[in-house]
Design brief:
The protein is α/β, with parallel strands linked by helices. The chain contains eight helices and ten strands. It is 25% helix and 20% strand.
């Protein structure tokens, strides 16, 4: 996805302009307040292609955990290109019941949280399946919030585009399995080359990032996790996440036990040389 950058249409200095108009011309960048009395909030002058709004299934007003070091809100987007049987958000993958929070409603919520929240987490589903994602991220950044994007890494060109335009401050990528096992674990036809491309891009992007793997009994053996460790070697952080049965996309996974704490802690020790930070999330105790 290529995002063009253009200058101001000039309307912001014309008395007939309206608040919130879209700049589309080739003039100098907008500089503030025109005769019409409005201010441009945009710190990023991106002439982004127009796409339908992203489908927001709902949002969490406040999280202390999901954006490291920041008070944040979480926006959950419908839709995903993968079908991981152990997925704990199946409603965001397959069941679009038409329930929506509009972009306008969410952005108005953020307006009321300025000075209280520091960031926004965009998660799913898989946010990168939506062509309107860059526009949505741009609108959030224009309001002064940092953006953390959760992704499965199957759309490296989207990641490159939004990072290149300064629309993302932190990326968390789920690495499902060693590349050779991706189709089995993700339940979908995945181009493993794109997964590797995303991993390498994120590591070299210069922005804060983490990789993470939900460790599922019977699917992820020790050698699988060591292979993933080699893929993400040099990363800021790599986290092992405990699988817990219940509410999974494939009901068969509800009969599996939770990943043993001892196995996760043992593997974290064996992986500690692969990233600056290696940790475990979701332990039972």
């Amino acid at each position: 996805m290529e995002l063009a950058v253009e200058g101001c249409c000039g309307n912001c200095t014309k008395g007939g302009s309206k608040p919130g108009h879209a700049c589309s011309g080739q003039g100098a960048p907008c500089e503030g307040k025109g005769k019409g009395g409005h201010h441009h909030e945009a710190a990023f002058r991106h002439a982004l292609p127009k796409y339908p709004p992203v489908p927001i299934a709902g949002f969490t007003p406040l999280t202390l955990l999901d954006y490291p070091g920041k008070l944040a809100s979480i926006a959950f987007l419908w839709g995903c290109n993968m079908r991981c049987g152990y997925c704990h958000n199946p409603g965001l993958v397959t069941q679009d019941d038409g329930t929506r929070v509009s972009e306008k409603e969410f952005l108005e919520f953020l307006d009321h949280r300025r000075g209280k929240l520091e960031g926004v987490v965009i998660t799913g589903g898989e946010p990168c399946v939506h062509p309107g994602l860059p526009n949505f991220l741009s609108a959030i950044k224009e309001k002064g919030f940092a953006v953390k994007l959760d992704s499965n890494g199957s759309f490296p060109q989207v990641l490159k585009a939004v990072v290149g335009k300064g629309l993302v401050d932190y990326i968390a990528m789920d690495v499902k399995a060693p590349l050779a096992k991706y189709a089995i674990v993700s339940g979908s036809h995945v181009d493993s080359g794109k997964i590797l491309e995303s991993i390498n891009f994120i590591k070299s992007s210069g922005i804060e990032h983490e990789f993470r793997t939900t460790v599922v009994p019977g699917i992820h053996a020790e050698e699988d996790l060591l292979e993933i460790g080699r893929l993400v070697c040099g990363a800021d952080a790599y986290y092992l996440q405990q699988f817990r049965p219940g509410g999974n996309l494939d009901p068969a996974f509800e009969r599996l036990p939770a990943t043993p704490d001892s196995f996760l802690l043992q593997m974290a020790q064996k992986l500690e040389s692969f990233a600056s930070v290696v940790g475990v999330r979701g332990l039972s105790y």
